[in-house]
């Protein structure tokens, strides 16, 4: 059949299936999620009208400045992400394309994923409370800490929760405030013994922090390179590996005494 067609006609006929395949690929759902900077919340203040940190059994202090935990927003586990979405995300500085399995547990339903993230947040809050009270030398039978943060899941707010508890109970230990009146943001998981771990989407979280007024960003040291990749101008990075290191860095930043690490 093609032998009876002119060369332009033959090329057109051959190109049609290729074009159809490309069009199908562009529209077909792919196993990726597209993420962007999400909300931030001041753990020293309120979230949706409710205090994020409530302490009973010990006096709390009036705080200044802000400690903002950061998030990313990703397309849902059941959302269709096309090739066009992936290409657009690769070239955008305010979005990131990640394998869906890196964002959500593989094979789980939306409800199961929501339950998983809620459980991760609960464990993170427990670890953050234990780490903060251990740092302060306070027994958790004497002090009760309640953490509430609506519509946020996962463990990446652990470091900021711990810092918020310490700031409300003890500040910098010498009557000052850990924030020094600044808006400080950050991210990082935390263990009960105060070790800070890496999280995902750090480059997007720095953008969310800068958008919401932060001038300092606490980042797990292992993720310095990621944080620097799209760092907004005017946002200072401080790498951390432990809760004590984070506190020491903030005190040094506030007082101007001692060294403040940088990425």
UniProtKB/TrEMBL annotation:
Annotated source species: Streptomyces thermoalcalitolerans
Source superkingdom: Bacteria
Keywords: Signal
Endpoints of the signal sequence: 1-35
Residue ranges of every copy of the Lon proteolytic domain listed in the record: 153-236
Name under which the protein is recorded: Lon proteolytic domain-containing protein
């Amino acid at each position: 059949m093609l032998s009876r067609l002119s060369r332009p006609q033959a090329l057109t006929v051959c190109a049609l299936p290729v074009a159809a395949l490309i069009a199908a690929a562009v529209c077909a759902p792919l196993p990726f999620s597209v993420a962007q900077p999400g909300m931030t919340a001041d753990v020293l203040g309120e979230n949706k009208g409710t205090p994020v940190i409530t302490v009973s059994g010990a006096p709390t202090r009036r705080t200044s400045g802000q400690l903002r935990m950061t998030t990313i927003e990703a397309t849902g586990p059941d959302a269709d992400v096309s090739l066009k979405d992936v290409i657009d995300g690769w070239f955008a500085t305010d979005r990131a394309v990640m394998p869906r399995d890196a964002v959500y547990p593989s094979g789980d339903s939306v409800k199961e994923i929501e339950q998983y993230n809620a459980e991760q947040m609960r464990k993170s809050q427990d670890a953050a409370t234990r780490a903060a009270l251990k740092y302060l030398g306070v027994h958790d039978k004497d002090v009760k800490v309640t953490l509430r943060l609506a519509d946020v899941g996962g463990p990446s707010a652990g470091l900021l929760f711990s810092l918020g508890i310490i700031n409300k109970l003890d500040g910098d230990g010498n009557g000052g405030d850990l924030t020094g009146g600044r808006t400080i943001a950050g991210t990082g998981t935390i263990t009960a013994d105060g070790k800070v771990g890496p999280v995902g989407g750090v480059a997007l979280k720095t953008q969310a922090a800068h958008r919401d007024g932060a001038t300092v960003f606490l980042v797990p040291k292992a993720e310095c390179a990621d944080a620097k990749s799209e760092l907004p101008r005017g946002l200072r990075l401080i790498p951390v590996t432990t809760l004590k290191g984070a506190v020491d860095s903030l005190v040094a930043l506030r007082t101007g005494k001692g060294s403040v690490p940088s990425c």
